[in-house]
Amino acid sequence: MTWQFALAGLAVGSLVGMTGMGGGSLMTPMLILLFGFDPKTAVGTDILHGAIFKSFGAFRHRQLGNVHTRLALWLLVGSAPFSLLGVQIASSFGDGTEKTMSTIVGWSLIAGGVGFLVKTFVRPLKVRQFDVAPRDRILAVIVGATFGFVVGLTSVGSGTFFGLAMLLLFPLSARRIVGTDLLHAAMLLWVAGAGHLLHGNVDVHAMAWLLVGSIPGVLLGSQMSIRVPERALRIAFAFILVLSGIKVVDLPAATTIVEVGVALGGATLLVWLALDLRGRRVRRLAPVTE
Fold first, then answer.
1. N or C: which end of the chain has fewer CB within 10 A?
2. pTM across the whole model
3. For residue range 65-78, what is the model confidence (pLDDT) as tens digits?
4. Where are the alpha helices (DSSP H) in the chain?
5. Quick check: 109 and 248 in contact, CB under 8 A?
6. pLDDT band at 84 (very low <50, low <70, confident <90, very high)
7. Which of 186, 145, 158 is nearest to 22 (CA)?
């Protein structure tokens, strides 16, 4: 199984480059549900994979001037040590506790989906030029410590919880949130990924093939970051996260819930496309007035 990993990497890398969405939020459930990985290996493989391909995206966003470097570094002060604590706890789960790890990852996905939906509709702070004042540093370290632990434990949150926190707390433009989030995520995931590698939680073969798709995907997505229907994409992403979490947790009637959710989502997409096409026709046929 090789090209399937590369295709999955391409899809996730493109989304991360375009929107700053968390690759771990998508890749971890894909590895568990589609490729049959045990949760601990899925988390470790995804984190180290994310460290490598997000570094390419962060470098590109840095070239485009979309990164607030000092804020990213202050986030890292809190997130790096607490991510290692999360790695240690995840690695302590033995083979007989796979269900416990699945439950933790699943509920993190559901929380991530809800958080991303909130992020989609929250109005950002008024954008302004700002230096990282002492208050901002304290907030950044607290945010980093809280969500860094979650990332180390589950791989979920590097592009969801941190992005939402920056949206609510710091006056950055959407493009700078994406770029800053990617730079911080890349640095954080290198720390957590090294920890998982040392604990033997990484499938190196799968990670290499994921990178074959994700590296060109994130570079392409970075160029398209301002040319996508962002709100619709984010709603769909949140929807996928919640359904994935329900399946990973294996709630009662999880399969039925996912099937109904996919059907409703598909129907909604078809209606939206039909209305969008109709609106374009109306605008094209409307008489031109001076």
1. C
2. 0.74
3. 888 889 999 999 99
4. 3-19, 23-33, 39-63, 69-91, 98-121, 134-154, 161-169, 174-198, 204-223, 230-249, 254-285
5. yes
6. very high
7. 158
Residue the block writes with tokens 């710091």:
170
Calpha distance 25→155 (Å, rounded): 7
Question: Cβ(29)–Cβ(258) under 8 Å?
Answer: no
Burial track 80-99 (b if 16+ CB lie within 10 A, e otherwise): bebbbebbeebbebeeeeee
Which tokens in the block code for residue 207? Answer: 């990670």
Distance CA 249, CA 99 (A): 8
Check: CB of residue 105 under 8 Å from CB of residue 40.
no
What six digits make up the tokens of 34? 């589609």
For tokens 């771990």, name the residue: 24
243 vs 235: CA distance, rounded Å: 13
